[in-house]
Please model this.
Amino acid sequence: MTLPDPVALAVPAFIVLVIAEVVIARLRNSASYELRDTTASLLMGLGNFAQGLATAGLLYLATAWVWQFRLFEIGYTWWAFLAIFLAEDLCYYWFHRLSHEHRIWWAAHVNHHSSQHYNLSTALRQTWTGNLALTWVVWLPLALVGFPPALIIFEKGISLIYQFWIHTEQVRRMPHWFEAVFNTPSHHRVHHATNPRYLDRNYAGILIIWDKLFGTFVPEDDAEACRYGIVKTLGTFNPLRIAFHEWAGIVHDVRAAGDWRERLGYVFGPPGWKPDGWGATSEAIRAAWRARTSAVGQSNT
Amino acid sequence: MSPLDLILPVAGIALIVLVVWLTGGLRSATIDDGEMIRRHLALDHPEFDPGDLRLAADKRSALVVDRGERRIAVLFALGDRVTIRIVAPGDLADAAARGGDLVLALTDLGARRIVLRLGDVEAAQAWAARLDGLLIQGTEPQGGRSAVVLVS
Model:
């Protein structure tokens, strides 16, 4: 069975929807788009497209190699499409969570979070180094189970297309039942926010149920507006720096490290990790925020 | 893969950039006053205790000294948003006065060079000297950890 490339088919829709959002944001007087930020995001998207072309063959070969050892014979039946939808989304959740929890994968993912804006162009601010960082290994178990490689790649495309539309501030909330089951603009705004209460939460791709299941879900609080970006906000629109700054940071830290414990910590520890334990990791930032809010609460009582 | 698969994304980017520009997308943030600086710091770096500060003449950047630790905050406009860098000892490769500008070279690849247009030669020189204690391999200034605050 030959499946289409859903992302290639969706490109015209991406362009039309971004332009529509620019116009809507302008009509609503919202400072949603800034020229240099948008250009940087789009160039990141173009670079991601190029690296995808360059590495697609390798990924397919790796997946096909694992598929030789498949445990079950899964073809292109109707239930296979349903099963891959759930299984791929679960893989995405773990890929995404690991990409925030370990610096070596964060280095590949950080560029997606590097904009202080949140709009449809941010969705296209994609990685240049994810495939080189081997983040695709998370999906290999699907081939081992028996899903055909083409079906896995097709579903990854569907997931990417779904996640495009949730990068917007123009939609406040979807119907309650939808918010309960699916990832939405509201849930994903939380994911892109640096507010301590929101930091490193809502990793979902399509279904928000995984975050609820694994304890990483935080709803958007209308009383606390999301502040977008990364903890150490970038001071550049240069796509090369956006793509490689964290990799350069890893190299710098590893070269300066005193021993192997430090080197491993800088590469595989959480972003912000420092050997003395005083690094600004997400957990440390959240703990400091909890301590502050609790102190304020006590002084008010 | 057809040529259209390559042409479409490139043409799409050009079109989007044009539309953003035509709808007034080229904007620059300004830093109005000390109150705004303190508000930004309270949100993004609540542990920073803002003391002495200097706002650039073009209102696009500012320096703030922490009253507690030996470090400064550099605020600067990036497009229509304000970005903050906390600069502690070892984060600064160079601080030099160039006329009325203060030019900071950071070790951080995400914000390598920040130019603060102070519009005042003496102030630029004074701040460059003041930041000496934060330089890489800089000698520990007399007065220890609070030297940046004390030297003015």
Remarks:
- Confidence is low (pLDDT under 50) at residues 138-152 of chain B.
- Helices of chain B lie at 3-22, 34-44, 121-130, 147-150.
- Chain B has one domain: 34-150.
- The first strand of chain B starts at residue 50 and ends at 55.
